[in-house]
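User: Please predict structures.

Assistant: First:
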Amino acid sequence: MVNGQSGPPVIHVENFKMNFGATQVIKDLSFDVNPGETFGFLGSNGSGKTTTIRALLGIYIPTAGVLQINGRNFEPSQATELGYLPEERGLYKKETVLDTMVYFGRLKGMTPASARTWSLSYLERVGLLDKPKVRLDKLSGGEQQKVQLGVTIMNDPKLLILDEPTKGFDPVNRRLLMSIIEERKQAGATIVIITHQMDDVEKLCDRIILLKDGVKHAYGTVEEVQDEFGGTTIKIEADRKLPASPSYTILADAHGHSEVSLTEGRQASAVLNELIEAGLTVSSFIPGRRSLESIFVSIYGAKEVD
């Protein structure tokens, strides 16, 4: 149960396989997304995330398996209940911001007046109230992304599927997006975030799945996945890279931010003393669960982490 909600899964995928010619892209994948939860669909580029969503939405025909939304295969009549932000954006670049939003609002069943009112309120929220008559191709990539997000959520859909939603966003607008996602969750929406960015996933997501080469490598609550891949670790901020030591294994170490797992029998306090004796200036030393980023690195390799 999430946010007081219970019931059958909103999304059900069972024994899903997808071949493109002789290449098997998805290999017997099964998972559920429950009502009211924020679900992280994680993996590197080419891992099969977008392929799965396209098959779920009827864009691709699966080679085998069951893919259902609210207990049935996707049908066009379900479109008004769904907000889908694709990785490849689909706006009409020669049209103005407001005309585009009103047009999509009408496609989603809104009246022209209600679509206009909602759109202007949203544009004010995201700092674009001065640009309703500007053509989309005159906006920056981040501004276009804000418009695309507005089109996605404007009919108050009960299911949101967001494919790389932070693409093109700077840190300030990234935080704005995350606050909007959290608001939709509090309103009772079920949200699927498809990403290979680990930032904010631990804060936003109730459960996650990690996919690599079409195979499920981890699945469960954030805490369950963290425990499965190593449990307690220590996050360390220091003035330089950590030295190798038999007391710990370095899981991540970049730009002064490190994460280590303790060798069995070693104590955190002893590791801290060891670092200080090695001449490091330690500004932060926090025991906790293993980060999703270091788990991602262990599965996909450091080169896959942006």
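Second:
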Amino acid sequence: MPTERFNRLPERKKNTIRRAAMKEFARVPFEKVSINQIIKTACISRGSFYTYFDGKQDLADYLVWEVGQKLENRCLKTLEENGGDYFDLMDSMFDFNVEMLNEEWQLFDVIRCIFSSPENFRAIDIPPAGTAIVSAAKTSNQTVSPAEWFFERIDTSRFRPDNRLDISPLISLGGAALFLSLKQYYEHPEALEKIRNNYHRSINILRHGALRAHAETSAQPGPEQDRPPA
């Protein structure tokens, strides 16, 4: 994360450095990002750069943190307004992310290139399916995973009993649907309405299931569960 010296810079200077970084991180995969190119575009010295950031990983963390803050603030606001309804939140997140893309079109490539690094991707730290997140001990200096963050804020009272303690598969599926829809929009912005409708259908499948309504079954998958009721 940036140093206090960076934080004390005038907003115009910070935005110049940020835009230069965004341009470079959108251009190439993470491993090929050039600090020399960033400082050239931002018109700063190499020495100045290292008084602001430890290196390109530190800078990448800052760019991701900025996006994360916007998403977290929106999630908090929406969940407070809708009483912790995860599916209502996910319905709204597509349009919110489209707004962010429209404001800064290269944002998608920046995120994609940063997470082209396996190390950065692993840092997302989504718990594996089958791990009851409430049973994992945490210390105050540990960063919570997305599943843990949502577990503390969404209303799980209407979930199936076997899903109430482990919502990580749900968070993974919702996030994948959102990312793939945003990728489609990035590649085909003219098809926005069709992509939005398909996204909402995906969230409704998560909300209601793909099969016709039937009695709640065991958490264990099996051939009987895979067939619709007669």
